[in-house]
Amino acid sequence: MGHCKVCGTPLAGRVDKQFCDDACRSGFHNQKNREEDSFLLKVNKVLKKNRKVLAQCSRYQQPVLIQKLLDEGFKPGYCTKVELISKRKGYLYFCYDYGYKTINKKQVEILHEGA
Ligand SMILES: [Zn+2]
């Protein structure tokens, strides 16, 4: 016999039953949605921050030092779109409308889409 996933009440009846009542069922799903929402909010926050750093740093002389981006709080690995420029030139990584490509191990060039 199984137990309710929320309150632990022993469950009678169908073997695939997971909750003892509707309150436990909806409580479980609400909690799951809240966890998903908070995860999405965290990721969106990182992406927005990355976009802001790219926007700010693009005002300086290009190319920009990768270290400068990192110092401003940029988190590599978070982007909204990746475009292949060419096999030799590599990829463009976008955070919304701002993108960057690596020039060498230490520098990137930032560009603004639609600018
Ligand atoms: Zn329950």
Structural class: alpha+beta
- Quaternary state of the chains: single chain
Low-confidence runs (pLDDT<50, min 5 residues)? none
Q: Ions, cofactors, ligands: which are bound?
A: zinc ion
* Tally of individual domains: 1
Largest sheet: 5 strands, antiparallel
What number is the mean pLDDT? 94
Termini separation comes to: 63 Å
**Widest sheet: strand order?**
1-5-4-3-2
Name the helicity range: 25-40%
Based on CA atoms alone, the radius of gyration comes out at 23 Å
Q: Number of DSSP helices?
A: 2
Order of helices and strands: HEHEEEE
The fraction of residues in strands falls at 15-25%
The backbone outline, from C-alpha atoms, is elongated
**How many distinct beta strands?**
5
Write the layout of secondary structure elements.
Layout: H1 22-57, E1 64-65, H2 66-71, E2 81-86, E3 90-95, E4 98-102, E5 107-112
Antiparallel strand pairs: 1-5, 2-3, 3-4, 4-5
The protein binds zinc ion (ZN).
Zinc ion is lined by residues 4, 6-7, 9, 19-20, 24.
Give a short overview.
This protein is α+β, with helices and mostly antiparallel strands and 115 residues long. 37% of the residues lie in helices and 22% in strands. The chain contains two helices and five strands.
